[in-house]
């Protein structure tokens, strides 16, 4: 993994060497969303009103050797002055990117169908365990040049040198707390995308952690964390259908191995440019396997819990505003057997 980081840094500095920039452009874009949410089985439980915003400051320009640069700061967190940041250098040999909690490569949402957003990604009372993504950390990436490969094939590789860096750091802040890590100290991820023909898009990713130093790891035990997703979306006229499957095993240094198997399905119908409806069915199966055998058992004890979410969405768009309604029903919520939850959301989103 050290060779990957050295290669990416080498390409970056060769691109920037003796290359002053021309004046760039600064743009501001974003959006605001207001929601009225009802949680729980009881229609009067958990009612609340929320307002969120996302504001992007973007700058771009060109170096005198013809290479391009893009810089973006995103403000979308009420507790942070500066949330997500990216700096990308475009060269004839591809793009090098430096990201702070940005640049996601996971394709767990490759199915992409949803009037207001793909199923559990738009609204869910529980968190689906879908695997690793470099955008949760400070990371560096290389993107293959566009249109280099047939069928619109795109390749991106990301590397997280330190998985403790899950918040934005100053350029001069290189401090690190040295502790045992049972979830991996570095992360490598690859993303593949393709558009074989009009209407069809395919996406997949694979990720793995390394350099675990948890107690069991030191004793020769423990496992690296791995995850993978593969999905496709097909649109024909007003109809869209999508499907994603994935697996995820977190890095562990304990006697219990936990892994997840996921299936996400979505269908969407656009009546016209303004009105869309969709249905999503998202299933995540958690399997926990003990390392020890129960008395008289032929294999380790395994516990399986299947969490399922069904969501219905209706969206109406006019100008830069979207009015939406979403209804969610969950079974075995939070991977807890017998726990059922419901959630209803009415939202108004405005983009600018």
How would you concisely characterize the structure shown here?
With about 350 residues, the chain is mainly β.
Contiguous runs where pLDDT drops below 50 for at least 5 residues: 216-220
How many individual β-strands? 16
- What's the alpha carbon Rg, rounded to whole Å? 22 Å
- Approximate shape: globular
The main sheet orders its strands as 1-2-3-4-5-6-7-8-9-10-11-12-13-14-15-16
Distance between the termini: 41 Å
The average pLDDT score comes to 83
Number of domains: 1
Quaternary organization = single chain
SS element count, helices = 3
Q: Mind telling me the CATH class?
A: Mainly Beta
How would you describe this protein?
There is one protein chain. The protein is mainly β and 352 residues long. The chain has a single domain, classed as Porin (Beta Barrel). The protein is built from three helices and 16 strands. It has helices spanning 2-16, 119-122, 215-218; strands spanning 25-39, 48-62, 68-75, 84-91, 94-100, 138-143, 154-160, 186-194, 200-210, 226-236, 239-249, 256-270, 275-290, 302-318, 321-331, 340-351. Strands 1-2-3-4-5-6-7-8-9-10-11-12-13-14-15-16 form a 16-stranded antiparallel beta barrel. A hairpin with a 2-residue loop joins strand 4 (84-91) and strand 5 (94-100).
């Amino acid at each position: 993994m050290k060779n990957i980081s050295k290669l990416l840094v080498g390409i970056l500095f060769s691109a920037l060497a003796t290359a002053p920039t021309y004046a760039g452009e600064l743009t501001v874009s974003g959006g605001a969303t207001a929601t009225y949410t009802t949680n729980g089985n009881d229609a009067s439980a958990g009612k609340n009103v929320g307002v969120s915003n996302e504001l992007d400051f973007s700058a771009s320009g060109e170096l005198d050797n013809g290479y391009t640069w893009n810089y973006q700061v995103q403000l979308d967190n009420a507790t942070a002055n500066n949330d997500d940041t990216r700096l990308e250098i475009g060269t004839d040999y591809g793009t090098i990117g430096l990201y702070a909690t940005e640049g996601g490569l996971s394709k767990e949402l490759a199915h992409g169908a949803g009037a207001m957003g793909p199923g559990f990604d738009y609204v869910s009372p529980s968190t689906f365990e879908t695997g690793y993504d470099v955008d949760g950390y400070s990371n560096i990436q290389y993107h293959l040049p566009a249109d280099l490969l047939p069928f619109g094939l795109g390749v991106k590789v990301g590397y997280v040198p330190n998985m403790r860096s899950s918040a934005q750091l100053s350029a001069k802040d290189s401090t690190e707390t040295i502790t045992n890590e049972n979830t991996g100290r570095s992360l490598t991820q690859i993303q593949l995308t393709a558009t074989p023909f009009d209407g069809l898009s395919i996406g997949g990713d694979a990720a793995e952690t390394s350099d675990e130093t948890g107690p069991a790891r030191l004793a020769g035990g423990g496992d690296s964390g791995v995850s993978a997703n593969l999905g496709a979306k097909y649109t024909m006229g007003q109809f869209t259908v999508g499907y994603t499957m994935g697996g995820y095993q977190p890095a562990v240094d304990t006697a219990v191995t936990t892994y997840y198997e996921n299936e996400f399905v979505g269908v969407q119908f656009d009546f016209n440019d303004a009105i869309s409806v969709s249905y999503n069915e998202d299933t995540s199966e958690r399997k926990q396997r003990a390392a020890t055998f129960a008395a008289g058992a032929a294999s380790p004890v395994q516990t399986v819990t299947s969490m399922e979410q069904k969501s219905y969405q209706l969206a109406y768009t006019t100008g830069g505003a979207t009015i939406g309604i979403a209804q969610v029903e969950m079974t075995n919520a939070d991977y807890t057997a017998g726990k059922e939850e419901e959630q209803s959301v009415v939202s108004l989103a405005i983009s600018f």
